[in-house]
Amino acid sequence: MLLNTAGGITGGDVFRFNGHAAQGTTLSLTTQACERAYKAQPGPSGHVTNDLSVETGSRLNWLPQETILFNGSALDRQLRIDMAPGATLLLVEPLVFGRAAMGETLTSIRLRDRIEIRREGAPVFLDATQYSGDLHTHLAKPHIADGAGAMALVVFVSQTAEAHLDPIRLLLPDTAGATLIHDDMLAIRLLAENSFALRKTLLPVLRRLNNETLPRCWTI
Q: Which of 25, 57, 169, 196 has a 20 to 30 A CA-CA distance from 39?
């Protein structure tokens, strides 16, 4: 379990983590609570870099809880995963757009988020997001997010990925979708009205892909 003793991330912060799943092992990583990207002063962003590697015959579960973006936040985040042939990966990255219970809207933020998965050094998955400005107005557009307050990306790399495609689709609402990018790579994207609705869909999906188990902190 990863702990952020600072309680959140603001401009000028730098967080780095390296993780390695040795051959024949399972490594599950999660967070003690939701991460928070706090309001930052003009200038430096908060930087978060996670570098992970998975050897042949091993499994990595990257299961952080939601990152909540506060209005005025500035976050620059990178997740890099190197996989050996025959390795398994379950990855989730949930984002929440402001504190809905407080009526917060994201009228001014800076966000850069990049997820890269490589196999034997060759890229097999890349997801990059960059935005600066009024995210609330941008997400309110019907063809963007239609006012969604939370989203998540799930990636599952396994020889069993294809077998999960149809059952996963049955679990998803109209604001989510699943596709098989490669024979062994399943990608799922979810939009939801808020973090509660996001979890309602996300938890059954993660349980199915993780042998019906989740870190206890996800269900407290």
A: 196
